[in-house]
């Protein structure tokens, strides 16, 4: 994600893999960004159109993150 946000990250309870852990952090960051952007719109500090564009940009980044971290074929090495 592009902009750093300061917030508490919830614990991860899913199956532990590095990809799952990183995607979970990205997902939580996306949710926090949406909340922050909606607050800015509600307070009149950003237009709804600008907020929509920022959320869309963040969503595309999250989708790319999912594709890179979770959708790749898992190869195993045989000894």
Topology:
Blueprint: H1 18-42, H2 48-69
Helix pairs in contact: 1-2
Low-confidence stretches: none
Structural class: mainly alpha
Helical residue percent?
A: 55-70%
Number of helices: 2
Shape: elongated
- Quote the distance from N terminus to C terminus: 38 Å
Please explain how this structure is put together.
The termini are far apart. This protein has 79 residues and is mainly α. It has 2 helices and no strands. The longest helix has 25 residues, at 18-42. It has helices at 18-42, 48-69.
Question: Concise description?
Answer:
The protein has helices at 18-42, 48-69. It has 79 residues and is mostly helical.
Can you tag this structure with a few keywords?
79 residues; mainly alpha; 59% helix
